[in-house]
Design a protein that fits this description.
The chain is α+β, with helices and mostly antiparallel strands. It folds into 2 domains: 1-30; 33-213, Porin (Beta Barrel). The chain is 18% helix and 56% strand. The chain is built from 3 helices and 9 strands. The chain is elongated, with a radius of gyration of 25 Å. Residues 5-29 have low confidence and may be disordered.
């Protein structure tokens, strides 16, 4: 009797387990393996005598929910001012320069829940420092030089809706080939502010309410 009861319990558990696994596979198959994303991405330099704000956006894809990659485009919104540019001449008394660059990025989602998310991102970028500088005698000339950079950061997101999230975090930017006078600004810790939007998910959610439950 006990043996028959044990066999029956085992069969019931096996059936329920198989049903649960099937349901889980179905739920997973409903979630797209690849989906596009658009992120408005801003940065504020933490350590700098001048300070610098950097604005930009990212276009990319999310794969298997935890891997994100794509391209980013950034530009300093206020530029930076320095009273020397020794790599060109010691007679330069002022220079106004800005940094623009594009990058490829990889973001790894470390933890996610229905309301929150934590991720780490690596950027590898290439762009140029451009602007103008003035000599003591009043002559002005233009500056335009290439620059390479890398940035590692971590970000916490708060999901505002099923297709929009707001994030904040910290990181560190390292540049190469930039003017020495600007390295304390360009090579520095940064504060990161992001607004993440999933436009296709927002559109599909207007007629498919199940999509609104995904996170």
């Amino acid at each position: 009797m006990k043996k028959s009861l044990s066999i029956a319990i085992f069969l019931i558990i096996s059936i329920l387990s198989a049903f649960g696994q099937k349901e889980e596979r179905n739920k997973k198959s409903d979630y797209p393996f690849i989906k596009p994303e658009l992120i408005l991405d801003g940065r504020l330099t933490l350590v700098s005598n001048e300070g610098a704000r950097l604005g930009g956006f990212r276009l990319g894809f999310e794969m298997n929910r935890v891997n994100r990659f794509g391209v980013g485009f950034y530009s300093f919104s206020n530029g930076v001012h320095t009273e020397s540019l020794n790599e060109i001449s010691s007679n330069i008394v002022s220079a106004d320069l800005e940094l623009k660059y594009s990058s490829i990025y990889y973001e790894r989602v470390i933890l996610f829940t229905k309301k929150f998310e934590w991720s780490t991102t690596l950027h590898l970028g290439y762009g140029n420092v451009s602007g103008s500088y003035a000599y003591e005698n009043g002559i002005t000339e233009n500056y335009n030089e290439p620059v390479q950079l890398s940035e590692l950061s971590t970000t916490f997101y708060r999901h505002l809706t099923y297709f929009m999230s707001f994030g904040g975090g910290i990181g560190y930017r390292q540049t190469r080939n930039a003017p020495e006078e600007l390295l304390p600004i360009y090579n520095s810790p940064v504060i990161i502010i992001k607004l993440r939007i999933q436009p296709i998910k927002a559109l599909r959610g207007t007629w498919n309410k199940d999509i609104r439950k995904r996170y």
